[in-house]
C-alpha cells in the first residue's frame, strides 16, 4: 500500500512539474507548439517526421507572427529563430551570449565526447585556438595528395559498374570514397572501402550515423539532463564505437612515434600538438601564443570529430550533387564544360589550384547544400541572460536556441521555387540580392564549421573526377520524386540514389 502511495505521489509531482514546464512559453507570450509528457512537442519524431521537419513546422507556422517561436524537446523549452537578423545576432554579433552548443559531454566515461564540436566555454576556446592552424589553406593543401591518390580508386569503382552493366548506389560509393579519404587523413588508415565495397571503419561509421527514433530521443535527453546523465555514467556514443576509435588512434600514434614515421595528414598535426603544443603559424602568419600540449585523449577526440564532420556530411553532399547533375543533363554539360576548360589550363591534372578556379562548380555544390543541407539545424545555448526586444522577453541562461538552416534554405520568400535545382541562384548577381544569412550550410561566426574547406575540397574533387570522365543518368530504380528518411539525422533518400554511368 505504501509503495503504491509513493508511486501516486511521484506521478503527481511529475505531472505538475510537466504542466508548469509546458506553460513556459505561454507565460512569456511567445507563440509556440504545445507540449505534453513525456516527449514535449516531439511526438512522432523519427517515425512520422524528422526533427528537421518538426522545426520547419514551427518555422512555417509562426514566422509571420514573431521573429522566434517556442517548442518543447521533452520538458525543455527551445526557441526557434525565424528572423534572419536575429539569427545573425545570435551567431555573430552577440556570440558571447550564445557560445555553447549544449551538446552532451562526458569525458570521464567517454573521452571521445570531448571534441571541439561538443565542448563549451574555455575548453572550446582553448581547443579551437589549438586546432585552427591545422585547417589553414596551406595545411589542407598539404593533405590534397591523399585525396588525389584515392580518386583513381573512385573511377575504378565506376568502371566496374559500367563493365558489369549494373546501377550504381551513389550514396554507398560516396561513403566509400569519403571514408577512404577521411580515414587516411584523420587516422592514417588505408581502409580500401572502394576496392572492397566496404571496410571496418565504414561499418562502425554506419552504426554511428544510422539514427532511429530511440537514438534521437537519447541524444536530446542526455543533452537536456547532462548532470543526471553524467551521474548515471551514460556515454555519448556506443561503447564499441568509442573503444574502436580510442584504440585505433592510440595504436597508430604509438607505431608512428616508435618508427619515426611522418605522414601528410591531420593525425600528424595532432601529434605535433600533443608533443610540441603547436603546429606552426595560423592563416594570418602569427604563431599560436600558447604552447600547452594536448593529451592523447584530446587528440583522439579531435581526430574523431574530423572523421565525424568529414565523412557523412561530405558523402551526403557528394551523393546528392551527383544525383542532381545526373537528373539535369543541361547543368551537367555546363559543369563538364567548365571542368574540361579549367583542366586544360593545368595540364589536364586535377590540382588544388585548378579546383579553386571552377566557379560554376561552386554554385552547383552550394545549390546542393541548399536543397539537401547535411546539418539542417544550428543549436546554441544562452550563456548569459539575453534581452530579446522584438519578443519582449529575456532569455534565461541555459535556454536552447535553434537556427533552422534547412527552413531558411527552403523558404520560397528567400529562394523562389525552392524545390527546383538552379545553381544560378549562387551567381554573384543573384546572391548579393539576398540577406547575408539566408544561406548558412556551415553555420556562421566563431563556431562555424572548422573543417568547411576540407569538406568542400573533398566534394569538389569527387565531382570533377567523375564528371570529367563519365556521363551520368538516373537509373529507374531511384524513386522519384525523392522522399527523405524520417529517422535519419542527415538527408537520406528512401530507396536510395541509383545512377547509371557511361564513359565519354
From TrEMBL:
Compartments where located: Endoplasmic reticulum membrane; Microsome membrane
Q: How does it sit in the membrane?
A: Peripheral membrane protein
Q: Which InterPro entries match?
A: Cyt_P450, Cyt_P450_CS, Cyt_P450_E_grp-I, Cyt_P450_sf, Insect_CytP450_Detox
- Residues recorded as binding heme, renumbered to this chain, are 449
Domain of life, per UniProt, equals Eukaryota
What GO molecular function terms would the record report? heme binding; iron ion binding; monooxygenase activity; oxidoreductase activity, acting on paired donors, with incorporation or reduction of molecular oxygen
Provide the family line.
Answer: Belongs to the cytochrome P450 family.
What is the name attached to this protein's record? Cytochrome P450
From which source organism is this entry? Anopheles sinensis (Mosquito)
Amino acid at each position: 500500500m505504501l509503495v503504491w502511495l509513493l508511486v501516486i505521489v511521484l506521478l503527481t509531482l511529475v505531472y505538475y512539474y510537466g504542466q508548469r514546464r509546458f506553460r513556459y512559453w505561454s507565460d512569456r507570450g511567445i507563440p509556440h507548439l504545445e507540449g505534453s509528457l513525456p516527449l514535449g512537442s516531439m511526438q512522432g519524431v523519427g517515425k512520422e517526421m524528422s526533427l528537421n521537419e518538426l522545426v520547419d513546422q514551427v518555422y512555417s507556422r509562426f514566422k509571420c507572427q514573431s521573429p522566434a517561436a517556442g517548442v518543447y524537446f521533452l520538458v525543455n523549452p527551445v526557441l526557434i529563430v525565424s528572423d534572419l537578423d536575429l539569427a545573425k545576432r545570435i551567431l555573430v554579433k552577440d556570440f558571447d551570449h550564445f557560445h555553447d552548443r549544449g551538446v552532451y559531454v562526458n569525458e570521464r566515461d567517454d573521452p571521445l565526447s570531448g571534441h571541439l564540436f561538443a565542448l563549451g566555454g574555455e575548453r572550446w576556446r582553448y581547443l579551437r585556438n589549438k586546432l585552427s592552424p591545422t585547417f589553414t589553406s596551406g595545411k589542407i593543401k598539404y593533405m590534397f595528395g591523399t585525396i588525389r591518390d584515392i580518386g583513381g580508386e573512385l573511377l575504378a569503382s565506376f568502371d566496374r559498374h559500367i563493365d558489369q552493366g549494373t546501377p550504381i548506389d551513389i550514396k554507398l560509393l560516396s561513403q566509400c570514397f569519403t571514408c577512404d579519404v577521411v580515414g587516411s587523413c584523420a587516422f592514417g588508415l588505408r581502409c580500401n572501402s572502394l576496392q572492397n565495397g566496404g571496410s571496418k571503419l565504414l561499418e562502425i561509421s554506419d552504426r554511428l550515423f544510422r539514427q532511429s527514433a530511440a537514438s534521437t530521443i537519447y541524444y536530446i535527453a542526455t543533452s537536456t539532463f547532462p548532470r543526471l546523465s553524467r551521474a548515471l555514467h551514460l556515454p555519448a556514443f556506443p561503447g564499441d564505437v568509442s573503444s574502436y576509435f580510442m584504440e585505433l588512434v592510440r595504436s597508430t600514434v604509438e607505431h608512428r612515434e616508435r618508427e619515426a614515421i611522418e605522414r601528410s595528414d591531420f593525425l600528424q598535426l595532432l601529434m605535433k600538438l600533443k608533443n610540441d603544443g603547436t603546429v606552426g603559424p595560423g592563416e594570418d602568419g602569427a604563431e599560436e601564443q600558447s604552447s600547452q600540449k594536448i593529451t592523447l585523449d584530446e587528440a583522439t577526440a579531435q581526430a574523431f570529430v574530423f572523421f565525424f564532420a568529414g565523412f557523412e556530411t561530405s558523402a551526403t553532399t557528394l551523393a546528392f550533387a551527383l544525383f542532381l547533375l545526373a537528373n539535369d543533363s543541361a547543368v551537367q554539360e555546363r559543369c563538364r564544360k567548365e571542368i574540361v576548360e579549367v583542366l586544360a589550363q593545368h595540364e589536364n591534372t586535377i590540382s588544388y589550384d585548378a579546383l579553386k578556379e571552377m566557379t560554376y562548380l561552386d554554385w552547383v555544390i552550394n545549390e546542393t547544400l541548399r536543397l539537401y543541407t547535411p546539418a539542417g539545424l544550428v543549436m546554441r545555448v544562452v550563456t548569459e541572460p539575453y534581452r530579446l526586444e522584438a519578443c519582449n522577453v529575456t532569455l534565461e541562461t541555459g535556454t536552447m536556441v535553434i537556427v533552422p538552416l534547412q527552413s531558411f534554405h527552403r523558404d520560397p520568400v528567400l529562394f523562389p521555387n525552392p524545390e527546383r535545382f538552379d545553381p544560378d541562384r549562387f551567381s554573384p548577381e543573384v546572391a548579393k540580392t539576398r540577406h547575408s544569412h539566408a544561406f548558412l550550410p556551415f553555420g556562421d561566426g566563431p563556431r562555424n564549421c572548422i573543417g568547411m574547406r576540407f569538406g568542400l575540397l573533398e566534394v569538389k574533387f569527387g565531382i570533377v573526377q567523375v564528371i570529367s570522365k563519365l556521363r551520368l543518368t538516373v537509373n529507374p530504380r531511384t524513386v522519384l520524386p525523392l522522399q527523405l528518411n524520417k529517422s535519419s539525422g542527415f538527408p537520406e533518400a528512401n530507396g536510395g540514389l541509383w545512377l547509371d554511368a557511361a564513359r565519354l
